Each structure stands twice: as structure tokens, then as C-alpha cells.
Amino acid sequence: MYSFQPAQPQSTQTIPAQRTFQRVSVNIAGRLMLASHEEFPCTVLDMSPGDVTFACVGRPAVGERVIAYLDHIGRLEGAATGLSNNGFAMAIAATERKHEKLAAQLTWIANKHELGLPEDRRHDRLTPRNTRCEIALDDGRRYACRIMDLSLSGAAIDIDIRPAIGTSVRLGNMRGRVVRHFMEGVAIEFNSVQSREALTEFL
Questions:
Q1: How many C-beta atoms surround the C-beta of residue 114 within 10 A?
Q2: Quick one: which of 9, 41, 124, 136 is 20 to 30 A from 90 by CA?
Q3: What is the pLDDT of residues 58-80, one digit of tens each?
Q4: Domain PilZ spans what residues (predicted)?
């Protein structure tokens, strides 16, 4: 099961900071943008609700603002606190509620293989840039949601309600059904495999 483990310091230069969270080792893909507006693919090596270590060819200056879009997590921003040989560390700028939500998301990520969450998806997950959307039920009810991850065959969404498993829904223009519940929301399997063009509004 999920447990936080302190990260080993790799920084070659740092800003002194008091870490209030322990990190857990993860492997999360995404992309990030530096203050220069240059974008780079990245991988999260370890993370806590308060800070994150990236492997990335892009190198910010210590103290530089960074914006990242991560699979399962969504948008994060913060300031670089240290550089390593293959990346950098960043302190996450967030409200207390956001930190609590990140803790829940990290728990979900670390334990998803035990919870039966969408590891069996037939297509690669994509990192949505536009995460805000809504789902519509057959009776006309609509609910705002946030896309946590997306593929050609399904999506995981962060939403306050939990439609029953098997419920038909529409996510944007894509029809599907609820196949799983998890801590942050629900997993949807689309009725048919989507084309990448159909997903362009989110990417």
C-alpha cells in the first residue's frame, strides 16, 4: 500500500526551506513550461503535496516560476528550489485545500493497482491542457468536472457526484459509461474509440 518515503537530496544548489511533507516515489509523465515560455516533456520522480522532483532537460533558475501539466494530477505551479544532474525540484504553490487534494491524488496514484483503477486502458493516456469540462446524464442533468487523464478509449474525471457504475454519460461530445469509482471521482469508458482529432479541444 501507499506510504510516503523521504526523498534523498540531489540538489546542487538550493533555497533553504522547511519541508513539511514527505515524498513518495512515483513515475508520472507530463510537460512543463518555464518562465521563458519554453515547454519540455518531463517525468515526476518523487512528489509530496508540497514539493516535486522532475527529470527534465529544461533547467529553470533557482526561484524561477514553473507551470507543469501532469497525468492524473493536472496543473501545478511553483518555484524551482534546486537543480540536479537530470532535472530540478520545485516547491508547489497551493492553498491548504489543494495540498489536501494532492495528498488524496498521490494516494490514488500509488494504490491504483490495488484499487483496480484504469491501468488496463487499451490506449496511452494523454495529458490534457484544458482539464475543465462537464458530464451530462441522459436525464439532462449536467455537472462540472475536471479531466484527470484522458485516452482514446476513456477518461478519469474529478467530480463531486458518483453516478452509478454503468450509467450512460456524455463527456463533452464523447459518449460513454461509468465503469469505476475512486476517491476523486469516476472512470469513464467511451462507447467507441475516439480519434485524436476528437480530443483536440482538451489537448
A1: 9
A2: 124
A3: 999 999 999 998 877 888 999 99
A4: 120-202
Q: Is the Cβ–Cβ distance between 169 and 153 less than 8 Å? A: no
d(CA 101, CA 46): 17
Q: What is the dihedral of CA 51, 56, 61, 62, to 10 degrees?
A: 20
**Tens digits of residue pLDDT in 15-53:** 334 445 667 888 888 899 999 999 999 999 999 999 999
HEC string of 127-190 equals CCCCCEEEEEECCCCEEEEEEEEECCCEEEEECCCCCCCCCEEEECCEEEEEEEEECCEEEEEE
β-sheet bridge partners, residue 186: 157, 181
- Please indicate, yes or no, whether residues 143 and 178 belong to a single structural domain of this protein: yes
**Cell numbers standing for residue 149:** 487523464
Tell me if the pTM is above 0.85. no
d(CA 81, CA 134): 36
Cβ atoms of residues 112 and 119 within 8 Å: yes
Q: For residue 40, which of 156, 150, 127 has the smallest C-alpha distance? A: 127
